[in-house]
Write a structure and sequence with these properties.
two-stranded antiparallel ribbon, 11 helices, 13% strand
Length: 387
Amino acid sequence: MDFRFTDEQRLYRDTLRAFVDKEIVPVAREWEQSGRYPSEIVEGMRKLGLFGLAVPESYGGLAADTVSFALTFEEISRGWMGIAGILGSHSVSCFLLANHGTEEQKQRYLPELATGARRTGIALTEPGAGTDLQGIRTTARRDGDDYVIDGTKMWITNARHADPLPVLVKTDPSASPAHKGMSILLVEAGTPGFEVTADIGKLGYKGTESCEVVLDGVRVPSSQLLGGVEGRGLQQALSSLETGRINIAARSVGIAQRAYDEALSYAREREAFGRPIGDFQAVQQRLAQTAVRLQAARLMTYWAASRMDDGVRMDTESGMAKIFASEQALECALDAMRIHGGYGYSTEFEVERLYRDAPLMSIGEGTNDVLRGVVAKALLSGKATVR
């Protein structure tokens, strides 16, 4: 059992860490509060090749191992979790295309997605269907050599920049079970009838947009059917969400790391009753517990990532890592706020943003309550074991 990074992973982490400390950390609080879109940071990530994380080398991507993939989202989220969302949705979609697209679709999109010349996201959720994806109402009816899409999608990250945007639809609304009638269509930007109608206001997760998307008679060629076969859309989406859960777990670790860093620094510098508050046992207890939570979440996330690199199915492992890390992120952010006292509630300090960003981690890529059910079913059926 080896918990050390390879030399390549260590060099990659150090390069990424330097980028985050120089380009993200100094501006995150100001840009988040002003609602400024982080175009310069996106360009920096593009120059580093980060948009090619999940793209095979044969199409110009980095084809990063999953541990390096996790490191990416941990480090960026340490600077500003919202920025990680821009890269996260793009990477999930690239994984989707790379693993399920036809060769023509891969050749058409992946090289430009790898460089960031194109960006993408994934449109799954709807106003009445989030966790229950089989309950979506967006349909695509066949009309000659085209599909005509009608419906509404919600909470779509990168919606204003995605080209193409994979959209989960029902090509056979009468199918039973419902997933057999679900497919994914690749909708290009500018297609008539495709409209981003609203940016949704949010507690946290700022820096990237989360949008409502309306598809009103959107006509796309049948060649835009992901994989070229109907009825596989839900399976395709769920397989991509395994990497998405590693992404969320790693983002959670990044939030927890920043919470720890801020709490440690404040405990050393802030004085009360003539001495640093870090001298007081109550603060020491919170600080120690934050460190324990952080390191446990990090190790579970790396463990799940390494399992994926071993080539085994790891929906249970990724679910476990996402559940645990996301809940530790929230606890770490809260304890960092408590250590800061009244200043923890001030927008002049970083911890209030961490506290607003953390709750989303227990919701994104499958709520923790649902994932607990997924993990439990795998354990009860014997498909997964803990020993």
